[in-house]
Amino acid sequence: MEYRKDIDGLRALSVVSVIAFHAMGSVISGGFIGVDVFFVISGYLITSIIIFETINGKFSFISFYERRFRRILPAFFLVSFLSLFVSVFCLSPNQMKDFAQSFAAAGVSASNFLFWHEAGYFDADSSLKPLIHTWSLAVEEQYYLFFPLFFCFLLKKREGIVIAFIISLMVSSFVFSLYIINKDSAANFFLLPSRVWELVSGSLCAWILYRRSLPKSAILSFLGIVMILSSFFIFSEETPFPGVYTSIPVVGVMLVILFSSNDHVVGRTLGVAPLSFIGLISYSAYLWHQPLFVFSRIIGSKDLSVPMIGILVFVTFLLSVLSWKFVETPLRNKNFLSRKVVFLSSFVVIAGMVAIGASGHISHGFMKQRFNDDQASVFMSSNLDDAAERCQYSRDDSVQSINRAPCVYNPDGGVAIAVVGNSHATPISPELGKEVAQRNMSVIQYAIGGCYELTDDAHGICAAWHNKVIDDINHNENIKYVVISYRNDGYVMDSKYISSMNRMVDSFLKRNKVVIYVMQAPVIMHHIDKYIYDNLKYISAPVASRSLESWRDMYIGFDEIKSMLPDKVIVIDPAEYFCSSEECYAIRDKRALYVDDNHISPYAASLVSKQIVNAILSQGGWEPDR
């Protein structure tokens, strides 16, 4: 099989775009598309190997999977276990538990299922997950479990049957992606069925080049490069992927594979030594970059400086060269280890990864082994109520799913309190439910993650959800009190936000509801886990995050919100309980006040809930307990 330097050049573009995206996504907003480019290249190369070996009578499934083991696992094991070692020293129990789960899932090529399952609003973002990039490896390995079986069988049939198989697989996967993209965007992104068409696109290229001698075209290959490179900068995380837009870089890669030539500028450029060498080490570079960036963000600051990014990129490629030369290359040699040793040792290591991952999950990140009781208690106080999170709606929900009934705490209560807002309302609901449980009152949670807008949003879901909630509350005579809580530090000066908030509040007041507006809690400077970890020796003392003055300066709409609300609205400011006259705290009374850097913890929500209860008492809502 002919070696093509231009394909290694494409690999180089792919891995560089992914690394650049994780380093500075604002500059190369579509760099994640490098993974889609990888999928097409992988489909092309693997299918080409299968075709070449089959027609020469050399193909066997055992040899195929042995090559996959030798190619993928050694460097993967190295990076995974080194990441595990570092994790023990710098991850919080929650982070360590998540890492342990991903460690086990990655070992059995199922991490894409895990990250799909974890894709909730309060889940740690990808910049803090050391092994999140293994989802794409899992997709590929799942694909190569079934595709070679069917393809080898069909190779013995007529050409029309092979083409029909490839085209039907592409079309069905593409249509499935379009179908599910608005129903479950996380499933669409992470799972194999909506990614198959990208891999099969590469397989189609391999089949075409096997059956036809295509004339090379400088224009078409150049067009392909333009489609790929433009996608890196035009698209962003807001672009629905995979879907229609994904076809642009995918077709671009196909054009390069089919029509590139060393006689043309595209082929010569992609084949230059620096690019082709980066292509050779691209797998190692892909493995190394994510843990390096994640641990740097966890240990230091989430916002990496330009010099730090430069250092991390240099270290990434240095480690990539070393692992390619001393791990990848030797173990690809069949004379280095026997087939039996390769399979046996691989299964033993994978079993070990599963065992370690399960232990980390059960022990909540090996918490007792790493922290004393006081330290563990503070970490545990930063956990969000699972039931409240499950009850939260999402901006990514379909129009149908937002019509599901809300969660109710103390459903047998008479008078009801509605808690309305975005994700900042979620922690309040269960704690308020506990506060009023003995007073024959229920709490209805109306919270939707990701909706800063109220009734005037471009997404449609936020507006539809808010209109439904307002209607539900106004037509429910049992709801006497409405608690409103939003993160809005970036929206309070927006005229649409103010007008829509006023309309919502006025509609409740006209129905004689008592409205309680909870101001946004201070945003702390780092993730709560960093404050806990950095202050383990002094965990009994309050830990300050920022000055009250800096929060007031940041929350420039503080006075505007108060002034826009009618006099009848009761205003509660969490800063009065989270801050002293000078400082705002991340930890107080040996308990975390946050679950990340802006959502309040159950303990903090209990403080706010007590103030809500006092506000209701002040309105004569019920007699206080004697």
TrEMBL record:
It holds the Pfam family Acyl_transf_3. The chain crosses the membrane at residues 12-31, 37-55, 75-94, 132-154, 161-181, 187-210, 217-235, 241-259, 271-288, 308-327, 341-362. Keywords: Acyltransferase, Hydrolase, Membrane, Transferase, Transmembrane, Transmembrane helix. GO terms for cellular component: membrane. GO terms for biological process: lipopolysaccharide biosynthetic process. Residues 390-612 form the SGNH domain. One of its GO terms (molecular function) is acyltransferase activity, transferring groups other than amino-acyl groups. Residues 5-323 form the Acyltransferase domain. It comes from the Bacteria. The keyword Transferase applies. InterPro entries: Acyl_transf_3_dom, Acyltransferase_3, SGNH. This is Peptidoglycan/LPS O-acetylase OafA/YrhL, contains acyltransferase and SGNH-hydrolase domains. It comes from Insolitispirillum peregrinum.
